[in-house]
Amino acid sequence: MQDAETERKRRQRKRSVAIAWILAVLVVLFFIVTIVRLGGNVLNGPG
Amino acid sequence: MSEVTVQAIPEKLDVALGGDVADYVALLKPRVMFLVVFTALVGLVAAPGTMHPVLAIAALICIAVGAGASGALNMWYDADIDARMARTAARPVPQGAVTPQEALTFGSVLAGFSVICLGLMANWVAAGLLAFTIAFYVFVYTMWLKRATPQNIVIGGAAGALPPMIGWAAATGTVSLESFVLFLIIFMWTPPHFWALALIRARDYERAGVPMLPVTHGADETRRQILIYSLILAPLGMVPSVMGFGGMLYTVVASILGAFFVVFAVDCYRTREGEAADRAAKHLFAYSVLYLFVLFAALLVEQGFGIGGGGLPLSWAL
């Protein structure tokens, strides 16, 4: 019974870590894609 | 009398444990994803103009995730069939590692996410094509054709053939005759590829109640159809050369690959008895994978290094 609970927690932790990694990669990807799509204009600043 | 060997189905896991990360990865059908990404990459690279490498990579990731979503939704709907077939019994849903509801949610979220991201990162023509591909694979092939007709993989093959067009659309914002030719090559390649597998796995499909051609029309008719499609595929593989976007390397590679495809198909057609027949079908199946990979790799190398197209012996014929 305790083994099953340990295994359930282990799997849940692995899924959580995987989701965290995916979210982190997405944040970086969206950031880079935004910069690329803005092109040179991003360096010009406002005004 | 030959004995039917069925792969042992692993003991069902307690659903309450929840699936492991590997189970969710398996839902995405990684091998299919690889082929989808590869053919989409060829479409993207072969397209005229340039695309920023970062945007190209982002587009390919979206296409890969869309393909994975299709796989997950397919496994959700086909869990009953998968459980009855030796080749698929160990998949996460029939095993009980992932519930059908989890597979459905996982696939649906990824499908929506991939389409929206492709639209935002590349363009909405490519996103529309990706949405169409996923919908066609899930609603037309999986839910309807697969269980209804032996032409299931012929018509359903359109979904697997679309990635080069999606890649092309991601780079150019439109579709063209060239990308349609790449679509046609994969479309014509699909029947001999899957029917070669179906010849080997006919009993599996019969047990699962899937009306594959060898089950409904017999092995001989399947071999005849394989040969017909192979005879169409071989010259079709040369069309990029005729149109001028396949160069000398592609022309040579496509000629040799096409000729050997016909040789393997003829061998499969003529060898109809015993283990030799199974072996001929296995050889054709394995060769068909190599065929598509090398054919598209030739195009990728040419276009990637800028040595393709233009002055081909056949290009001025049009």
Describe this structure in words.
- The complex is a heterodimer of chains A (47) and B (318).
- With 47 residues, chain A is an all-alpha fold.
- Chain A contains 2 helices and no strands.
- The mean pLDDT of chain A is 86.
- With 318 residues, chain B is mainly α.
- Chain B folds into 2 domains: 13-175, Orthogonal Bundle (Tetracycline Repressor, domain 2); 189-318, no CATH class.
- Chain B has 16 helices and no strands.
- The N and C termini of chain B lie far apart (57 Å).
- Residues 1-11 and 310-318 of chain B have low confidence and may be disordered.
- Chain A binds chain B through residues 4, 7-8, 11-12, 14-15, 18, 29, 32-33, 36-37, and chain B through 14, 16-21, 24, 52, 54-55, 58, 61, 121.
Radius of gyration of chain A: 20 Å
Which structural class is indicated by helix and strand composition of chain B?
mainly alpha
Secondary-structure element pattern of chain B, one letter each: HHHHHHHHHHHHHHHH
Number of domains of chain A: 1
What sort of overall outline of chain A do the alpha carbons produce when their principal axes are compared? rod-shaped
- Compute the average pLDDT of chain A: 86
Structural class of chain A: mainly alpha
Number of domains of chain B: 2
Q: Specify the helix fraction band of chain B.
A: over 70%
Basic shape of chain B: flat
- Please write the CATH class name of the largest domain in chain B: Mainly Alpha
- How many H/I helical runs of chain A? 2
How much of the sequence lies in strands of chain A comes to under 5%
Topology:
The complex is a heterodimer of chains A (47) and B (318).
Chain A: H1 2-38, H2 41-44
Chain B: H1 21-27, H2 30-46, H3 53-77, H4 79-84, H5 92-95, H6 100-121, H7 124-148, H8 152-161, H9 163-172, H10 177-200, H11 202-208, H12 213-216, H13 218-236, H14 239-243, H15 248-270, H16 274-304
